[in-house]
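fwd from M.: "can u put these together and see what the complex looks like"

so here's what she sent:
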Amino acid sequence: MLAAKQIALRSARLPLTSFAANRKKHTLPDLPYDYNALEPVISAEIMQLHHSKHHATYVNNLNLAEEKLGDAVAKNDVSTVIGLHGALKFNGGGHLNHSIFWQNLCPGGSGDPSGELAELITRDFGSFQAMKDKLSASTVAVQGSGWGWLGYNKGSGKLQIATCANQDPLEATTGLVPLFGIDVWEHAYYLQYKNVRPDYVKAIFEIANWNDVA
Amino acid sequence: MLAARSFVQQAGVRMALPLSSYRSKHTLPDLPYDYNALEPVISAEIMQLHHSKHHATYVTNLNVAEEKLQEAVAKNDVSSVIGLHGALKFNGGGHLNHSIFWQNLCPGGSGEPDGALMAAINRDFGSYNNMKDKLSASTVAVQGSGWGWLGYNKAADKLQIAACANQDPLEATTGLVPLFGIDVWEHAYYLQYKNVRPDYVKAIFQVANWNDVAARYSAAGGK
């Protein structure tokens, strides 16, 4: 530890900045299945664009924003640190949300939830169907771009439904732990479902991976 | 006016504001050109969905929201009046924005701006290209769904660029008079341009109708 501090002092920078300098970049996670594996619910064309273009762009821009953040912190430029919030939330949120999304889905779906998750769903919504109905309604009603979420309220021990605008990440925005998310940015469904968002939201439950959610 | 009110009373219609009894519903405006007329810049498929589905839905839902608004006003239900704000802004904004958008575009575009509008563009941006560059950058940078706008600041007598989220209408949100808008909701371009929003924003200037923009500028008092 002493050696590290001497090195840091010798390079005349706060230890924090060497943290920023050594931080590894974020990377685009691989999908756990092929681009065509979620058909016919989500087309291969959508999956390829969504993963290799949209999510990849969030990752790249998050890395850029974090590099600027490191520079600003090093210079004690508080104004710039604050000014980077939008880019960090948008791209960081985009990376977080999509990383969860790919795992939330699986070819053919996992069947209905079971075990403790199923019990919690029944306790907090009455039934699996009732939960799906509420989640679907909230998700379809998102104005513009955003996400519908089944989340977990650690404070109350309850499952809750919430929506977020744009790429606002669920936990940072609401405190809820994200369990299952439905992307309703138009890029998530438009090529296949056009303006009929309700059909996409209804269909996505056919490929939900409740094992991941559990 | 007096005769109309008594007729309404005789018909047993709930006497809310006279205005509410006669207000016509909003209707989907016709496009001033065919669905394929803006090709190759915007495909016929996009135009048809955009106009007959998306804009049509805003019109329908605006009428529903306004009906609820009338009922809430009639009952003095202030809470509901306030609660309807989101639906009114979203659907009303959607109707306003798209109604402007269809007029802002024309087959083949109108060429470059001229006259008083061009003079104002040169004065406030340095050149037409500078204005396009600024408008394009702001529009491409919209996070999520929204619109890029060239607007007119009446108080300052200046053209300004602004962006709005979702369907937030420019004038009610910023005070700027909307002159030329670029819809960057993904439904406006995705079928054709996929994720490459910058290509769509660049191309849309080829179908811009600066005559319509100039008319709006003039109507707002711009000289």
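replying to her w this: The interface with chain B takes residues 49, 53-54, 57, 86, 90, 143-146, 165-167, 185-187, 190-191, 194-195 of chain A (CB under 8 Å).
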